[in-house]
DNA sequence: AATGAATGAGCTTTCATTCAT
DNA sequence: AATGAATGAAAGCTCATTCAT
């Protein structure tokens, strides 16, 4: 699926078998199309017409699946956000210890962006255009992050931080991922390439900041 | 003046004396009005009508001062950004040493938000809606930040970071300010109140991360 | 149909059966409405609102049929011009000889104006407001005219004129039709009544000028 | 005066001596500027701003000299029309006989266009945009033309035409001048160059048509 | 269920005119 | 008398949404 063209993927519902599966595929095609369009032109400029054309369905069809344009926009980030979290979880599985897991998931995040370079823009604009979805996403991610930090702390891997402080730190690290992904976005918005230097600096700062020790030489 | 209502402040040009002063005040009223409106409803929804009504001038007047709606939007962040930098510079003046200066300017940033709570949203959306202005602002701020970090490093106050790494760290800290300001925005978007805990956690993380030592007890 | 009011005619699409027929009727209603409006107030004042109201459709509907206001204006003269040429051809059919054909088509032109009194104004203004359409129309008409003159010349009916001269003469005769139609337009612009005297004078001048003999008594 | 640049001519009021002369010059500068502007962009697009800028006076000044934009537009053609008639009269003076006078004045008309190539467009559009001025102009010109034709007739130089017929013919010849001037306008609208062929064809047709004899060899 | 044409609210922008200086 | 900034009416156009097919 990864290498089908966008349109082909979008229109894949045409081969659906059962009625409900077809339905599911159209909905998904609309979401994918919306992700692409919003990634390219932003929420404000993403019109229903553009989205339905990209998805290969009629304009009116849109309203069989979403109550309104805003309804879809609200679904966009939560949908993508879960994909992102699933991806990162899968990639980081089997890691051990704070340092290893943090690095794996940091890299996995940027790995995810290779297939979904629209994500940073969608995330950034969602705060204004789909605030509910944005909050939901932030909660999801921060909760997971905080749990991870707390576990690491219980294992004695981190400096002494209170639970409230860990929440703040979690936000700072999410912020860092977000800013760095935008910072290293290609000008056309179609790919993100994080330089090794940036990844190293991130890890160095985080390890000093949380563990209190510099990264070990590899 | 600080506590006049927005509209009253905006319409203060009516008392202007000379013609050029009046002109200056209207331009400034339009920019202030735009900052308020964009802060409330975002770039995309900020219409010329809303802005001129808020500023207390006729619709057509807008185009005596700005070539187009986009022209004003492009001026918005650079304008506010300079105000912010001026404010922070004034507040941090007289501080000494990395720890002191960093803390002073961190707090000053949030102090600035008390008078301009629209800033975080404007900054965030500018990336999409006024990209040129956004880049300009980011360059301004990051350059100043990096210089500050380099100076601190020369003074032997920081761990060993390369110049390139310092740039990455600067971005991470700008990101942290941005995210935290949004995290602690009141739901109505009209004020930012950074809890002591958050400020402490920030300083703790930064000091561990950069200096390698925990914050001294005050 | 001829005597339905403008609005009623325009709104006749409401009784259309198939979808594509309905489409065709709306497009045609818009063109008719535009012809009327332009005939009354001129190109410059013919607003999309006026045209759609006259056609009995919503404003937005306009843009389902024409890319822009200018797009419709550009279609106006070519559209009417063909109607005019068709009408004149039909009326002049069966005539024989230069004198007969010229007179028949001259009268047919003014006959056409009975049903489309807006034509002279549209033609006149098109030069400024729809130059492409104007050129197209002039080419169509002049080519036909020149061919007719050349045929008459080959038949030995005319004085000796070179091909280039015939083109100039064709322009002069088109000019005459245009000016005379404007000269004898009723003050309200709603009808053209060419006096017998004018038609006679035209024919007399043309016959002397081209044939070299006065019109025969009828 | 003929060779001053437009702007210089327009602003020549600055050197005026008496108050009323200055006044007169500004009014005249506005009319000249309007002629240029309308010649270039047409009545519909000729804004007060463009005209005052071209004339070198402030925008507000306009309304000290004309009641409204339309007021000036209405004055435009009568003003230019008189200049044209004066010019043609001067050039044709001393001619003798219909043939000579007609040819002289025909050529003089095109001579006038060399210095005022805006004339055809202004004349053409005036019918729609300044109908009163247009009628006035047409009356002026046609009356003169008819008088000329009647005089020639009394001298036995023309075929037998009734007075009413002469009026129609006069219109036809005015139409011819107008169409030919537009036909041979350069694409940029800045000059008119009538080819010898066209002038010859015109004279040939007119002489056959009115005199009944071909042009004599020169 | 899928469609796409019809719709009007609402946008940005222009410009003739007014009026305080 | 000359000015140019202020103004709002009115324009062309877009697009989310509805609805008949």
From TrEMBL, chains A, B, C, D:
PROSITE patterns: HTH_TETR_2. It comes from the Bacteria. Residues 24-84 form the HTH tetR-type domain. The keyword rRNA-binding does not apply. GO terms for molecular function: DNA binding. The keyword DNA-binding applies. This is HTH tetR-type domain-containing protein. It comes from Cupriavidus nantongensis. The lineage of its organism: Bacteria, Pseudomonadati, Pseudomonadota, Betaproteobacteria, Burkholderiales.
